[in-house]
Amino acid sequence: MELMQASVQDRGGVITQEDPDRVTIRTRLPAGVLDVAQLRGLGDIAERYGAPHLHLTTRQAIELPHLEAARIVEIARDLEANGTPVGAEKHEVVNVVACPGTDRCKLANIETIDLAREIDGRFFGRDMPVKVRISIAGCPNGCNNALLNEIGIIGRIRPVRTPGLCTGCGTCVEYCPEQAVTIRNGVSVLDESRCDLCGLCIKSCPYRLIQSADRHYQILVGGMSGRHPTVGRELILVDTPEKVIGVVEKVIYWIYRRARARRLLGQQLDEMGFDDLKQRLAGEFGPAQAP
User: Fold this and answer.
1) Is residue 167 over pLDDT 50?
2) What is the pTM (predicted TM-score) of this model?
3) Which of 163, 191, 199, 230 has its CA 20 to 30 A from that of 13?
4) Rounded to 5 degrees, what are φ and ψ at 129?
5) Using CA atoms, how far apart are residues 194 and 196, in angstroms rounded to an integer?
6) Phi/psi class of residue 186: alpha, beta or left (left: φ > 0; alpha: ψ in -120 to 50)?
């Protein structure tokens, strides 16, 4: 029992509080999705062990605060049985975040939930020299701040105009948040240097004259939030979920081998050889069609 207690205590999802006899337990919920029975189960576990409330975290997990440290093993067993096991928080791969994606969102360009679960199943909880946060956004709106994660994945799509059929109604102009579309000589014209490949003009065209092409995943590395927010650097564009998982695996291994502890990943990309990694992955996975 003492060995098991120590093992559970060391998990990243067990967070010590100011009161040394109390802990907060963070759960593992890839993409923040759980079924109704699991949600009820968390409420039951919270009541059973005296948690006064539940806390929704910014990384789509649920925390049970103010629990007795002496009962960690019992609580962990009940959480495991509920399908909401103890999560991660230390220098490891933590809860994978995702927006609703094409399952629910009208703006999404890619499926996100199953991809998040697959990435979670392969990499969650791996010990790392630095914390590795992964976020998947279905479109460049980036509602879950994929740009500010150690690994960010963003779904993008290229709009293609149908020659000779545009009515010049201007709907796509009104919808484009980047002001990348204008009407010239009665037809819409796209300034590709301003387009962020969100696909909103495709969805807005009332006559369905803007087609979609080159659906792909933009993968960025080294984003930082917190004290010094920094956008991650583009690593590669790939065109399938399988390639996304392959790239993520390579990046995680690269971080494990090259990163130094006590510094954020985004602070050490150059000395880790980011450009070499970028070139190597481009050769291995092949670039998706770039803008």
Assistant:
1) yes
2) 0.94
3) 230
4) -70, -20
5) 6
6) left
